[in-house]
Amino acid sequence: MKLIILDRDGVINEDSDAYIKSLDEWIPLPGSIEAMARLSKAGWRIAVATNQSGLARGYFTEETLQAMHARLAELVAEQGGQIELIRYCPHGPDDGCDCRKPRPGLYRQIADYFGLDSLSGVPTVGDSLRDLEAGVAVGCKPYLVRTGKGNKTANQALPTGTLIFDNLAAVVDSLLEP
Questions:
Q1: Please, are residues 158 and 144 in contact by the beta-carbon 8 Å criterion?
Q2: Cut 0.90: pTM above it
């Protein structure tokens, strides 16, 4: 199975230090929707793993988050692709959960969904160190994009073997090279 795990904010859509709080604020990054559709049409299964502490902080509701995810799935479907799974952490930073990245709980949920014993070698794409650390903790291959917080993250000590690309479309180009 060809599986990829993507972070959301800063990888698929614009990020904001003030949080993405409404459907109007959820704006896809140029080329991200098309890239996901191309990957899907090439036989890849796409999962999204995203921290959404804005829920715990009261910045938006579960319904608003579901509307954002429905819009994402709709846009990818309009391009002929499919997002198979979206998992998110609704907790705040001090809630002590296992699902808030950099902890690997979301990745374990994704492995369980797909019936996988291991995520070894599965590409994970993020724009922050915590995205990469969560994936590496379960054996994923880390890809950093320079969108979102990625340029700043690129200056940090990255997990061994991290590949750096300008954006999600460039990652997909690399994965689909013959």
A1: yes
A2: yes
Catalytic residue among 9, 15, 127, 131: 9
User: Does residue 49 contact residue 101 with C-beta atoms inside 8 Å?
Assistant: yes
7, 15, 127, 131: which one is catalytic? 7
The predicted structure's pLDDT at residue 143: 98
Tens-digit pLDDT profile for residues 21-71: 999 999 999 999 999 999 999 999 999 999 999 999 999 999 999 999 999
7 is catalytic: yes
Q: Residues of the chain with pLDDT > 90: what percent? A: 99
Phi-psi region of 116 (alpha: psi -120 to 50; beta: other; left: phi over 0): beta
Distance CA 29, CA 36 (A): 12
To the query of whether residue 131 is one of the catalytic residues in this protein, the response is: no
